[in-house]
Amino acid sequence: MTRTEPPPSAAPVTRPARRRAVALVAIVVVVLVGVVLRIAVRSDLWLDEALTVNIARLPIGEIGGALRVDGAPPLYYVLLHLWMRIFGESDAAVRALPALLGIITLPLAYEAGRRVGGPESGRAHRVGLLALVLVAASPYAIRYSSENRMYILVIDLVLVGTIVLRRALERPSAGRLVAVGAVVAALLYTNYWCLYLLAVVGAIIVWRALRAPVGGDPDERRTARRILVAIVLGGLCFLPWLPTFLYQSANTGTPWGTALTPTVAFAYTILDFGGSAFAEGWPLAVVLFLLALLALLGRARDARRIEVDIATVPGVRWEWAVGTAALGLGLVLAYITGTAFQTRYAAMCFPLYILSVAIGLMCFADLRVRAAILTIVVALGFVSGIRNAITDRTQATEVAAALRREARPGDVVGYCPDQLAPDVSRLLPDSLGLRQFAYPEFAPPYRIDWTDYAARNRRADPVRFARELERRAGDGTVWFVWSGGYRTYRLQCERVIGELARLRGDRRIVVNVRPKVFEHMGLDRYAP
Question: What pTM did the predictor assign?
Answer without folding.
Answer: 0.93
